[in-house]
User: Fold this.
Amino acid sequence: MEDLPLLDQAPRERADAARNRALVLQAAWRLYTSGGVEALTTDAVAQEAGVGKGTVYRRFRDKSGLVAALLDDKEKELQLAMISGPAPLGPDGSREERRSAFVGAYLDYVQAHLDLLLASETAAPGARYRLGVYQFWKTHLTLLFADAQDPEFRAYTLLALLDAGLISHLRSEGWSWERIRAGVEQEARR
Assistant:
């Protein structure tokens, strides 16, 4: 008899499903690296991975699902650093230090993956706010703004400044990454 997963564990994946998932994600990274987000079509990813289109569709549903899976490992790295890494990002830093460190780390993440984040966060109206990782960021920042009059509002405000759509717009207006970083870090220190 097969054991059921514990509440905090994802269900076990069949070996062939795990293999296909890995093939699809590796193929998607290759296509993304060579052609950007536009290269991530179901047909192209399936062909590059050597699997059927149905395999890609069943696993990821659409481009935004595939993009979210590509970002997942990067997001987990940042989450792990926030939860158990060294100060100032990790739990041993002061709230203000941790907010500033989060902004720096998150902007590094955005700078490296802006087009993927745009595809993920704008897949549908309000998509950004429904992402599980967004809820994690908001909860984390709410705790770090515990001394503010309205911690949750401050968390939402800071996250609004880290929105991929806003950052993309500012970049198209000629803003440097340094200017964006300085402005957002100033808000994190308030």
